[in-house]
Design goal:
With 454 residues, the chain is of the alpha+beta class. It has a domain of 150 residues: DNA polymerase, Y-family, little finger domain (Dna Ligase, domain 1). It is built from 16 helices and 15 strands. The chain has a five-stranded mixed beta sheet with strand order 7-8-3-9-10. Helix 5 packs antiparallel against helix 6 and helix 13 runs antiparallel to helix 14. It is globular, with a radius of gyration of 25 Å. The N and C termini lie far apart (59 Å). The chain binds a DNA duplex (18 and 18 nucleotides) through helix 4, helix 9 and strand 11.
Length: 454
Amino acid sequence: MQVQPDSELDNYLTEISPENSGIWLLKYRYMFGLADFSSFYCGTHELFEPKLRFLPHVTMSNNHGCIISRSKIAKQMGYGMSQNAFELVKQMKKDGVIDYSSNYEYYQSMSNRGFNHVAQFCDIVERYSIDELFMLFKQWDQDALPALGREIVRSTTKGVGVEICLGLAPTKLLAKVANKMAKKSPDKSGVVVLQTDAQIRAALQDFPVEDLWGIGPAYAKFLSGWNIYTALDLAMQPEYWVKQNMTVQSQRLWYELRGVSCVPMEEIPPDKKHICTSRSFAKTIDDFDLILKAVSNHATSCAYKLRKDKLNCTAVVVFLQTDKFRTEQKQYNNDIVIKLDVYSNAARVIVSKALEGLRKIYRKGYAYKKTGVMVIDLIPESHQQTALLFEEKTHNMEVEAKLSKALDSINNRYGRNTVQLGAQGNDKQLQLNAPNLCPCYTTRIEDIMKISIG
DNA sequence: TCTGGGGTCCTAGGACCC
DNA sequence: TCTGGGGTCCTAGGACCC
C-alpha cells in the first residue's frame, strides 16, 4: 500500500521550504485543532460537587481494579494512571483520596455537550474519543490564531464546566503534539499553536518520540536502538528508511511530522467492524448457569448496540477466560464463532447463538474471570436479503424484529432491563463492584431531582 | 485484597489457484 | 520429471489508541 498525502488535504500546501533535504512547509491552507478535557472523568465529578475541587479524588475502572482518571490534587500527590487499586488502598485512605466508580452514561452526555460547544468555532469537528475532539479550520488569520485558541478554551471550559486544553497545528499529529505541550505549558492558557517552520522544529526537538501518537512501547524500543529519541530525530530520517523499517502507518506519521497532512478528518464516524460487550466478574465463577446469564446479558447488549447503529451481524463470537494473573491456577481460554442463518440484530437470535457457542466451549472445573460476546461481519440494516430467503425464515425475521422493537421502546422509556429475556439475570455474583457511583446528573430525571433538592 | 473495556489497522503466513 | 512464481483471500496475532 502506498502512502499518499490525502488528495483533498493536499490542496492545503502552498509553499515548500527550499532549504533542507525534506519537505518542510512554510504556509498551510487549513489548520487542525485537538481539544481534550483535562482529567475528564474527575472533572465531570467536580462539576456537580464543587467541593471536590479542593479534595484529592480519583475515578476507578470497573470492579475498582485500577485508577483511570485523577483530579489535579491527586496527580500532585503522585497518584498515577492505571495504578492497581490493591497497592494503593491503604495510602488512599491515609491521604483521604475519594475513589469514584466510573459512570459512563454521565461521561458520554458530558462529552456530547463538549462536542456541541466546540463545533461552533470551526468548520468540521470529529469525535476522536470520549474526551478528545479534532477540529478543522478552513480559514484563519495567522496573527489572530493564538487569541482564537484562548477564546475557545475559555468559552468551552466555562460553557461545559470542565477544563479543556487545545493544540493548533497544520496536521492532526502536530495538533496532538501541540495539545500535549499545552497540558505542560507553564503559562496556563491551555493553548499551544504550532504554525511556523521554526515553531514546529523547536517543538519536535524537545518532544520524546515515545510520546508521539502512534508510537507505543515496542516502536519506542526499536527506535532507541537507532538513536532516535526525539520526534525531530524521526522526522529527519529519510523516507526510505521509514519505509524499510516501519509500517505504512509510520510513514503517515512521518509525513504528518513534516507538516504534510495524511490523516483526514472523519466528520461522519465510519461503520463499526465489530461490536463487543465483555466484563470481568468481581469474583471468579465456575457455575455454568451464572455464566450463561452473564453471556445472555452481554449478547442482549450487543444486539441492542447493533440496533442502535442500524446494523445487522452474520456471526457471533463468545469467549471465556480464567484469571490470567493467577498463574498458579489452571488456565483455560477459549472462543468460538457461531454463524447465523440470516443477518440479524434481534436479541433472541443473538442470545441463542451466543449460548450455543458457550455450551461448546464451557469446561467444568475452572475459575472463570471474564466472559464476553462479540458480533462480527456487520452490515447495514438497509442491505436486505429477504428476497433470497425462504418464506418461513423471512417471517421469523419479521417477528423477531418486532419483538426487539417492542423491547427497546419499553426499556428506553422505563429504564434499562425493565423487560428482559428469560435467559438473562442480574444475580449478585454478576453485578459490578461499583460502590461509589455518582448520580447521572444530566441524563436521569430521578438523579436530577436529587441534586436540585439536595 | 487485584490488575478495565472497547476499538482500529497492519503484517505475516497459509491455503488455494493458475 | 521438474517444481517456479504470481496472484488472491483469509486469519491470527501484534501493536497501538483512548
